[in-house]
Hints:
Helix content is about 30%, strand content about 20%. It is an alpha/beta fold. Helix 1 (about 65-75) packs parallel to helix 2, helix 2 runs parallel beside helix 7 (about 245-255) and helix 12 (about 365-370) packs across helix 14 (about 440-460). It is globular.
Amino acid sequence: xxxxxxxxxxxxxxxxxxxxxxxxxxxxxxxxxxxxxxxxxxxxxxxxxxxxxxxxxxxxxxxxxxxxxxxxxxxxxxxxxxxxxxxxxxxxxxxxxxxxxxxxxxxxxxxxxxxxxxxxxxxxxxxxxxxxxxxxxxxxxxxxxxxxxxxxxxxxxxxxxxxxxxxxxxxxxxxxxxxxxxxxxxxxxxxxxxxxxxxxxxxxxxxxxxxxxxxxxxxxxxxxxxxxxxxxxxxxxxxxxxxxxxxxxxxxxxxxxxxxxxxxxxxxxxxxxxxxxxxxxxxxxxxxxxxxxxxxxxxxxxxxxxxxxxxxxxxxxxxxxxxxxxxxxxxxxxxxxxxxxxxxxxxxxxxxxxxxxxxxxxxxxxxxxxxxxxxxxxxxxxxxxxxxxxxxxxxxxxxxxxxxxxxxxxxxxxxxxxxxxxxxxxxxxxxxxxxxxxxxxxxxxxxxxxxxxxxxxxxxxxxxxxxxxxxxxxxxxxxxxxxxxxxxxxxxxxxxxxxx
Length: 500
């Protein structure tokens, strides 16, 4: 006989947080949103932690290299979408990893025999205004000079002019020697008013470039998520079909964390994928999912997953529940899995973070998800609205919107996402093609959301996420109390009404 869950499947909108005593220490400025993203043993420090509990979804319409940089700059992580060729995804990871670092391997290089036309074409292709001139045009060749925008004038110089005739030659460069520390490099930059400092070996070969803008950006973004080399931490989505080809390419590109992207992760295909990664890449972390219950969580954890994603059918563009009748209310799924995670930790001493993926409509739902046990949340619609998402900004009627489509839609053509073991192609859609209201920049909107979360945590008497998970008091709400919670029994003012 089938197993029946007679308790209703609950959503975030059916709960509210009940305030605890707000002590004088509970001030938003004292709140830490730092949270682990990969498993760790009791008493140890996780290999990776987020400075804010946000991840952008593994979606074509959300997470590319630009979103990866923008979100890491704010302290979160993007998982660059996998429904593209291996080469293009690896290149996105490579771009995001090299966007900012303390010591940067030069990616724009020419030889003295090249021309101004070559410089301009390289700048157009890469966006880099600084070009290293080496003996063989390689990033590790003998450094002969540097070209920046100050070395030429397009209005006066011929496009056929040789680079060797206008570059700043090595003899006139201020440079650092191999083994210099980042602090010492930044001191040279400031002392000599430089924008870029090359670092060279004793033989004169270029090793790295250090940029002033990287130092400035770090001071402007104190919560940015960096690895040991001061590069942004970047994630990427994979599937259970071509992982033996895709994973090595992503690892070579520098990816930090992988996640298997699937509408239903409780499958043997995910187990095989996890075991392949763990057997071949010791240091690579991999999340798995999505699941909605204790059994699914334990299956993937025992397979070796470093974190687990929770949620089926709760995304704003996901119609899995409608099409297949599969899924569970996000709150119910999260509560059960969080309990299983805590029980597993007590029994083994290994803490496996969980990510709540889907079901978030309002900002306060994020705080609820954290209070219910999520270590971080993954969102698609939220991030699709911003300038940094990869989709087009359009005007529909009198409003600006951005395109937003699901990975289960025909537009995405992401058949690899579905662990069916059958032939390639989508027999039916599990996502829709849509628009979301345009909201502006990520940083401005994310800042408001974070402030709401911190303020609510203070109302709950907590200044860390673990405190919130231990101490939060959560109540079910009735349909009428939901109505009561919004503006009611008043005539709202319209912005276009003016006084005489």
